[in-house]
Automatic annotation (TrEMBL):
Organism: Oncorhynchus mykiss
Keywords carried by this UniProt record: Acetylation, Cytoplasm, Phosphoprotein, Porphyrin biosynthesis, Transferase
Every Porphobilinogen deaminase C-terminal domain range: 243-297
Lineage, uppermost ranks: Eukaryota, Metazoa, Chordata, Craniata, Vertebrata
NCBIfam families recorded: hemC
BP-aspect Gene Ontology terms: protoporphyrinogen IX biosynthetic process
CDD domains named in the record: PBP2_HuPBGD_like
Pathways involved: Porphyrin-containing compound metabolism; protoporphyrin-IX biosynthesis; coproporphyrinogen-III from 5-aminolevulinate: step 2/4
Protein name: Porphobilinogen deaminase
Its job: As part of the heme biosynthetic pathway, catalyzes the sequential polymerization of four molecules of porphobilinogen to form hydroxymethylbilane, also known as preuroporphyrinogen. Catalysis begins with the assembly of the dipyrromethane cofactor by the apoenzyme from two molecules of porphobilinogen or from preuroporphyrinogen. The covalently linked cofactor acts as a primer, around which the tetrapyrrole product is assembled. In the last step of catalysis, the product, preuroporphyrinogen, is released, leaving the cofactor bound to the holodeaminase intact.
Annotated ranges, domain Porphobilinogen deaminase N-terminal: 19-229
Binding partners and assembly: Monomer.
Known EC number: 2.5.1.61
Length: 357
């Protein structure tokens, strides 16, 4: 694999490898990739990094709600093609944009420490000082996330919800320069990375809006067989984030959910106990199922495990296998509990209604 990439010997006989990092062209994607590049540069000063930016389907189709495009891996396919053709060696993604089942031959080689996973309210400047509670009746909130709309419709029945698409810059512009939206909902993590924290008027806690699977965490996708790169990026793993995200992704995978279903989670690790709250919603939030479970992720808690296996697409040799097995089991068990209470009916109806919109 490494034979495909430029290798150069320097005077000391150490290998100066050129690592090509693939990224989407959006400003957020560039910022995220630069962030990972900085981390790698610090850890491996001899490695030469090159950044290759490309457009994806998700970037090209800007007028349709994400959940309506009906194409899996909206933001990832072109980048994976480049990875497969050895045009790049790794790709930095927002973990929440990565499907729970990756195409054969790829793996998530690093999950970095999570930023705030919560959603945030960004107000039209004229509404400064207001909250979702105090916005006038009929105020229009912009979001194309079925998950956000479902939870917030139920919690704030006086508000109305409308799709809004485009990258973060486009959305903020649509909010500020028109009168179409009273506020928009965005991930706090993305806003922070863009340096727009000052625009956050309200961060939504789990009682208002639980977050999406993987939200706030960065992931590095690599070729599963590229051991050199896999080992290199594995030093970026953040154990607690890895375990939380394995549980969340296992939950979503068991529910057969993609990026377009109203599924939300909340996770926490405390005293070696991983807890997961998971919920599914009808499109208007009127129907919902929510349950919570926890499991010990103490490395002393020996659960049977096969060595060297991926957990919902994640390869993390340096995180205790038994803890990863436990995290995956937690996600699957919680999904099974919700399924036994009728979660599939709620999701199937939501999917049908969304397709018919
Ligand atoms: C996914 C969703 C959205 C993105 C659906 C959801 C939001 C779509 C929308 C799966 N991916 O959250 O329920 O608001 O119309 C996305 C963002 C980030 C990663 C932007 C955002 C940045 C935060 C992060 C789009 N993907 O959610 O505000 O790294 O988690």
């Amino acid at each position: 694999m490494s034979g495909e990439v430029l290798n150069a010997q320097d005077g000391n006989g150490t290998v100066n490898r050129v690592i090509r990092m693939g990224t989407r062209k959006s400003q957020l994607a560039r910022i995220q990739t630069d962030y990972v590049a900085e981390k790698l540069k610090t850890l491996y000063p001899d490695v030469h990094l090159e950044i290759v930016a490309m457009s994806t389907i998700g970037d090209k189709i800007l007028d349709t709600a994400l959940s309506k495009i009906g194409e899996k891996s909206l933001f990832t396919k072109e980048l994976e093609n480049a990875l497969e053709r050895n045009e790049v060696d790794l790709v930095v993604h927002s973990l929440k944009d990565l499907p729970t089942t990756l195409p054969n031959g790829f793996t998530i080689g690093a999950v970095l420490q999570r930023e705030s996973p919560h959603d945030a309210v960004v107000l039209h400047p004229k509404n400064s000082g207001l909250t979702l509670d105090t916005l006038p009746d009929g105020s229009v909130i912009g979001t194309s996330s079925l998950r956000r709309a479902a939870q917030l419709k139920k919690r704030f029945p006086h508000l109305e919800f409308k799709d809004i698409r485009g990258n973060l810059n486009t959305r903020l512009k649509k909010l500020d320069e028109k009168e179409d939206y009273a506020a928009i909902i965005l991930a706090a993590a993305g806003l922070k990375r863009m340096g727009w924290e000052a625009r956050v008027s309200q961060v939504l806690g789990p009682e208002d809006c639980m977050y999406a699977v993987g939200q706030g965490a960065l992931a590095v996708e690599v070729r599963a067989r590229d051991c050199d790169i896999l080992e290199m990026v594995s030093t970026l793993h953040h154990s607690e984030t890895v375990l939380r995200c394995i549980a969340e992704r296992a939950f979503l995978r068991r529910l057969e959910g993609g990026c377009s279903v109203p599924v939300a989670v909340n996770t926490e690790v405390k005293d070696s106990v991983l807890s997961l709250t998971g919920a599914v919603y009808s499109l208007d939030g009127a129907d919902s199922l929510k349950e919570a479970m926890e499991i010990s992720v103490d490395p002393g808690n020996k659960l049977e495990s096969a060595a060297d296996i991926q957990h919902v697409g994640v390869t993390a040799h340096n995180v205790p296998q038994c803890a990863q097995v436990a995290a995956e089991k937690l996600g699957v068990d919680l999904a099974d509990l919700l399924l036994s209470k009728g979660a599939m009916e709620i999701l199937t109806t939501a999917r049908k209604l969304n397709d018919a919109r």
